[in-house]
Amino acid sequence: MTERQLSGVVIAMPTPLLDDEEIDLASLHRLIDHTVSEGANAIMIGGTMGEGVALLEGQKRKLIEAASVHNAGRVPLLATVSETSTKRCIAFIRSIADCPVDYVVCTTPFYNRFPDATSILSHVKAVAESTDIPVVFYNAPLSTGNPVDVDTLDRILNLDNIAGVKDSSTNFRAFMELLRRYPKNNRPGAIMQGDEAVFDVSLLLGADGVVSGGGVVFIHLLLQLLQAAFSNQPEAAMKWQRKLTEELTALLGNHAGRDWVFRIKSRLFREGIITNPNVSAPFYKQANA
Known about the structure:
It is a single chain. This protein is of the alpha/beta class. It has 11 helices and 8 strands. It has helices spanning 25-37, 57-71, 86-95, 117-129, 141-144, 150-157, 172-181, 199-204, 219-230, 234-252, 256-270, and strands spanning 8-12, 42-45, 77-80, 103-106, 135-139, 162-167, 190-193, 209-212. It has an 8-stranded parallel beta barrel, surrounded by 6 helices. It is globular.
């Protein structure tokens, strides 16, 4: 597949579910239409926001197949393929080889700890070599339990068939060091920020774009923030960042780590975009969220 540029606002979509936790395809179609019509530059499915690790293997394939068909190439589509081992990750990528996705997204393996950078690097290298689809590395140590230092991120960014990195480590110091090493428009792949608290400064200082799960209900704010930063208007970018932070805080409440997926889905439900706010067990469901 021809690689399309990875930049701008990437929305990490939730996965709409029926009462039995099967994928709600009608709601998925409406959510894709909404995200595209709002102006998102790309869509990511099956990630942290998408409850990807909770889905059965067949469900993940169904999600990717359905999303790629309905998206129909309107915006770049990123499909998350993270697994607990290199072998499982490669096998899953091969199982979706016929799906027209623009990128596959992989984290480090999770559950087991891999403290040696060589293990992480060899995993990503093997995944990238197993497919012709460009690979985006998703640095998510808070979810995987496997932190990746900046030197390893640098080496990953320079691997063949790596289109970029999405950094959700909340380690802004390391993220800034990666930006320092690679001036914008002169880097081996895209450098994307996934920490919603620092979108403004990341973009102002050279990030190629942002990846946001909570932003699925605030796409217009993200686009305003992006435009201000890319136009080198720091005061405006910070204004939109404050607005985004205020809106997210109001939506997620004081226990964001407990029921954040349900709260975001509840907002989409209230707006008539998805049929119900079901989440995969054992995610917490807060009444009247």
